[in-house]
Amino acid sequence: MKITFSKSSNIVIFILAMTTITSCTSSKKMFQLKKSEEFALQPVKAESVLSKQEAAHLPACVQKYLVYTGAIGKSKTQNVCIEFDAEMYRKPGDKPMKAHSVQYNFYGNYSRLFLMKASKMGIPFRALHIYKDYQAIFQVKVAELFKVVNISGEELTKAETVTLLNDMCVFSPGSLVDKRLTWSEIDSLSTKVTLTNGKYIVTAILYFNELGELINFMSDDRSALQDDGTVKTFRWTTPVSEYIEFEGRKIPTVGKTIWHYPEGEFTYGVFTLKSIKYNLTN
Question: Which pTM was predicted?
């Protein structure tokens, strides 16, 4: 059967197509703009090597972790760029949505810029997280035409502060000497850490194995977005494994993000590290 379109239909299709093409870059443009701003505001300073003495105040299990990962004797992390492949789940039992993400974290004035690209049934999605200046926004767009999520506010900023802390612990172990962190040792393989960023204070428990590897991160300070648009706080864990050396630093390459709901655990993301680079200039 041959399908034909009227002249007016062709115009509508053209407009929709052009809208899709031009708007498809909007999340990316916002991401690139914020990235450029951060590199301008937080340029890389002269190299400073992390010494063992600077980590002496940390719990023994964290000191061992810094030695194991190679953070001691390496340049202090000023920024980091991380790329992942991921499988994301909307609900338990759902088929995964394949995704790819790139993010930049800056550790002078804390900021985290995250952009994820994904598609499901041929429909593209973009998820954008911006955390800077003690504020956070989170947007999700379908085909870059419709915002299905667009939230901000104190609850989101607190949740994103937990995510920032998680990134520090997993991907930038050398940043754990930061004075904005306080520590309380639990036992030889676990410790409590608290991050203060402005008025936002979040806490997590870190778990290590005998090798010195971080194997899990647990926080009760992170909220989850519900289907009705509200956010509710539940326990959040991120078990990590399969350490591989990048630029002389051992980093876990597989991680899961898990909500601990009253009805049971829900793993909503499985991430595989593709690349990680430190102290970029742009």
Answer: 0.89
